[in-house]
């Protein structure tokens, strides 16, 4: 009798007081798991690198307006000096002789004295040529190409950022779902332990009954079969829990041992659907930005038909090998106007317009799907609330039956088997309540996600 009372106390302590816990905030442990998962996500890091590349492309666009200064140096060796032809060289030598005769007062037709030598005509260009110069080039006007390209990349970046937020929402939902599944498995395991206690007592009872001729071998075989099924069920629960812990460990970066220490539980969300404000979904925001990006890309392609203005400057650092035709320095402004390019820019602009049309259709499609998703999420959540109310009444009835059976047992009116069965029935009712509570939580998360409020829940 004392042993039976001790068993009652042990099993009775496992019965938790099932009061509704109204909450619109997540468990701090769960929030920490979510933050770890979002920060660890390899896909997010890859996307962030892609966003940084777009930011770098935006910066590089404005760099086109920064003047480019280059230093060049070259050495060339020709097969021979570049000289004037014989006739022109004779003409220059004759001109030189006339000038000397005029300077010395020698008659025009007289021969130059032998002591007077004419200077040879230098080559136009020596065969060894060494040059070095500074060149500066600067874009003054791009025909609005850089400005429109920057706006296109800016909207592309925003689209990528909104798309990443959408992926964050999916990851958050996955982590929450695994967390609640672990909480549900813990509750299932508690019920299985209680059932095991019940079967053990039933086995003892049948063994005693058989000795007194009140039971047969089939009764023992039925109990043994039930115990085997129970062991399989416990094994399945254990394996599911291990798989969930491994998956959660991979997503959050925490070890399985650390995750085992967490206190997994489910609370009633108690969302007021009428009070939830509809926020624009990140998927729609991303598509809007994508449409704008294609629009500016189209405009950018058409700027190919606008004139471009550039400034250029040149300065020779070495003068020795310059010809008489080479300038020491120069500065100038040039204009380039692509009047006809064989419709290349036009076709690129047309392609961007088609991409924009595709994005517009995608926007309409996603908007319709989200509208339907919202309706379904609201319906499922409100249905789960009604189910919880019903099952809560079943839990109360099972509790009442247990309390009544316990009083009857203490007064010797029922057997220990009847008492254990009432405890098992209560545990099963509680498990069913936990299962519906799990559904309510998941439906609440899906409802918040459908309205674009899931990440706000994490921030709160």
List the SSEs and their pairings.
Layout: H1 2-13, H2 28-40, H3 42-62, E1 68-77, H4 86-104, E2 128-141, H5 145-211, H6 217-252, H7 256-260, H8 282-302, E3 308-316, E4 329-336, H9 344-410, H10 416-450, H11 454-459
Helix pairs in contact: 1-10, 2-5, 3-5, 5-6, 5-8, 5-10, 8-9, 9-10
Structure description:
The structure is a single chain. The chain is α+β, with helices and mostly antiparallel strands and 460 residues long. It has two domains: 2-68 and 143-459, Outer membrane efflux proteins (OEP), CATH 1.20.1600.10; 84-122, no CATH class. Helices cover 66% and strands 9% of the residues. It has helices at 2-13, 28-40, 42-62, 86-104, 145-211, 217-252, 256-260, 282-302, 344-410, 416-450, 454-459; strands at 68-77, 128-141, 308-316, 329-336. Strands 1-2-3-4 form a four-stranded antiparallel sheet, with no helix packed on it. The radius of gyration is 45 Å and the shape is rod-shaped. It starts with a helix and ends with a helix. The model is unreliable at 1-23 (pLDDT under 50).
């Amino acid at each position: 009798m004392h042993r039976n009372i001790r068993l009652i106390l042990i099993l009775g302590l496992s019965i938790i007081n099932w009061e509704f816990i109204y909450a619109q905030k997540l468990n701090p442990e769960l929030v920490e798991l979510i933050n770890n998962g979002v920060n660890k996500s390899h896909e997010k890091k890859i996307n962030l690198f892609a966003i940084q590349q777009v930011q770098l492309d935006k910066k590089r666009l404005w760099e086109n307006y920064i003047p480019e200064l280059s230093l060049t140096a070259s050495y060339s060796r020709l097969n021979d000096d570049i000289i004037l032809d014989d006739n022109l060289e004779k003409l220059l030598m004759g001109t030189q002789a006339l000038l000397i005769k005029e300077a010395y007062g020698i008659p025009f037709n007289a021969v130059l004295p032998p002591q007077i030598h004419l200077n040879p005509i230098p080559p136009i260009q020596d065969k060894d040529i060494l040059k070095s110069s500074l060149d500066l080039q600067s874009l003054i006007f791009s025909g609005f190409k850089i400005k429109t390209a920057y706006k296109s990349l800016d909207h592309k970046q925003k689209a990528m950022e909104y798309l990443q937020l959408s992926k964050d929402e999916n990851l958050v939902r996955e982590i929450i779902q695994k967390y609640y599944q672990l909480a549900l498995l813990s509750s299932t395991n508690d019920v299985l332990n209680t059932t095991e206690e019940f079967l053990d007592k039933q086995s003892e009872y049948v063994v005693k009954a058989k000795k007194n001729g009140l039971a047969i071998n089939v009764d023992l075989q039925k109990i043994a079969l039930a115990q085997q099924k129970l062991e399989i069920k416990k094994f399945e629960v254990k394996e599911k829990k291990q798989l969930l812990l491994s998956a959660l460990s991979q997503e959050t970066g925490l070890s399985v041992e650390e995750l085992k220490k967490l206190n997994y539980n489910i609370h009633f969300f108690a969302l007021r659907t009428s009070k939830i404000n509809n926020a624009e979904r990140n998927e729609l925001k991303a598509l809007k930005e994508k449409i704008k990006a294609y629009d500016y890309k189209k405009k950018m392609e058409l700027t190919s038909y606008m004139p471009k203005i550039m400034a250029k400057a040149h300065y020779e650092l070495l003068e020795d090998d310059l010809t008489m035709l080479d300038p020491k320095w120069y500065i100038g402004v040039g204009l380039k106007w692509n009047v006809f390019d064989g419709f290349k820019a036009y076709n690129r602009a047309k392609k961007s317009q088609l991409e924009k049309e595709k994005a517009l259709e995608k926007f309409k499609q996603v908007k319709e799907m989200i509208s339907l998703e919202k309706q379904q999420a609201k319906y499922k959540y409100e249905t789960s609330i009604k189910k919880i109310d019903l099952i809560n009444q079943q839990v109360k009835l099972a509790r009442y039956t247990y309390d009544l059976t316990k009083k009857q047992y203490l007064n010797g009116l029922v057997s220990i088997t009847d008492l254990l069965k009432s405890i098992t029935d209560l545990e099963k009712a509680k498990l069913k309540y936990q299962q519906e509570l799990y559904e309510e939580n998941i439906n609440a998360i899906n409802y918040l996600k459908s309205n674009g409020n899931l990440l706000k829940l994490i921030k709160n």
